[in-house]
Amino acid sequence: MFDALMVNKDEDTGKTHAEVTQIDLDRLPEGDVTVAVEYSTVNYKDGLCIGPGGGLVRKYPHIPGIDFAGTVEASDDDRYKPGDKVVLTGWRVGEAHWGGYAQKARVKADWLVPLPEGLDTRQAMAVGTAGFTAMLSVMALEDHGLVPGNGPVLVTGAAGGVGSVAVAILAALGHEVAGVTGRPDTADYLKSLGATQIVAREELNETVKRPLESETWAGCIDAVGGEMLARVLGQMKYGGSVAAVGLAGGAGLPATVIPFLLRGVNLLGIDSVMQPYDNRLRAWQRIGKDLPLSKLEDMVVPATLSDLPKLGADILNGQVRGRVVVDVN
Ligand code: NDP
Question: How many Å lie between the centroid of ligand 1 and the Cα of residue 318?
Fold first, then answer.
């Protein structure tokens, strides 16, 4: 038996309810590798899967947790043996497949990566899907020509998970970083991560009035989408790129094509879920090298399985700062 955060759905009312429950090992889904989970975390998608489902969860009862790190307990795959430390992000684990909010998980070997050098399992989950995605975004901006010295790089949703890690990585790489936040009380936190400029959310979440504004940002990592992304496109420097990561502010894009046509701006889509294995390894290696661990520690909010129903609601309300690390044991 092991502990897990189990979500049940009342078919009559359609309401979901999450609570910590004891589960028999036999109930784990099929997979090649059984992992003794040590840490998981709370991403925006987890908020949906702990709570209303957001169309992500296929069937109930469900164990959420879109990422985890732990130790292999049993393996039918040659790539992993008992005792190996592993990390999982993506592949719809925690949505379509039982996830990391449990002391045990069973998954496909293809979905795992070895724990990156220089990180322990707790640090790997302080990074988690949010931080991994932040690094994919940095890599995409670099692949499109961003180098330190090009000008300020904007990070939207800066005090959230993706945003916090993005600010810390960009600053450590020598970029000038501006963070957009709707929470003015997080300014000192963002500066401690390396932001040199704080932009108030209200300055950027108004509908586009002019398709082009002053050329301000050399790059942008956008966790917000919606009107903010549309505004930012019109403020990019010539040839600059925006990595579109999230939709915390909306899934729409009420923009014009003018920034693409007149300024050669690039809009780069970032997906962490189906990333090919080689690129996953490359991103995790870069995290081990380019994310200062002291800054990572400053982002951590510790939690246990029983804290998750509240934290799930908090992240949907934009109230989680930095990275929650869930000790499932
Ligand atoms: P968080 O909730 O930790 O961060 C989101 C941040 O966005 C909040 O902290 C807040 O920052 C800001 N925000 C929230 N609501 C609004 C709003 N209405 N308008 C403007 N800003 C808002 O979530 P994550 O960092 O885990 O995820 C961020 C986004 O990225 C989510 O949409 C998520 O689904 C997506 N994502 C996508 C991935 C991919 O593979 N493409 C992978 C991981 C995440 P502040 O208070 O500083 O303003």
Answer: 7
Q: Indicate the top mutation candidate among 49, 162, 190, 198 to test ligand 1's pocket, ranked by most ligand atoms within 8 A of CB.
A: 162
Question: Which residue has the CA at smallest separation from atom 30 of ligand 1?
Answer: 246
Q: Which residues line ligand 1 (CB under 6 A)?
A: 43-45, 129-130, 133, 157-163, 181-183, 186, 201, 205, 223-224, 228, 245-249, 270-273, 315, 318, 320
CA distance 82 to 34: 9
Q: Which atom of ligand 1 is nearest to the CA of 322?
A: 3
ipTM of the complex: 0.99
Task: Please count the other Cβ atoms lying within 10 Å of the Cβ belonging to residue 170.
Answer: 30
Alpha carbon distance 33, 56 (integer Å):
24
Using omega within 30 degrees of 0 as the cis cutoff, is the peptide bond preceding 52 cis? no
Protein residue whose Cα sits closest to atom 31 of ligand 1: 246
The one-letter amino acid at 27? R
One-letter amino acid of 9 = K
Hey, what domains does the chain have and what are their CATH numbers?
Answer: 2-115+296-327 (3.90.180.10), 129-269 (3.40.50.720)
pLDDT tens, per residue, the chain with 329 residues: 999 999 999 888 889 999 999 999 999 999 999 999 999 999 999 999 999 877 899 899 999 999 999 999 999 999 999 999 999 999 999 999 999 999 999 999 999 999 999 999 999 999 999 999 999 999 999 999 999 999 999 999 999 999 999 999 999 999 999 999 999 999 999 999 999 999 999 999 888 889 999 999 999 999 999 999 999 999 999 999 999 999 999 999 999 999 999 999 999 999 999 999 999 999 999 999 999 999 999 999 999 999 999 999 999 999 999 999 999 99
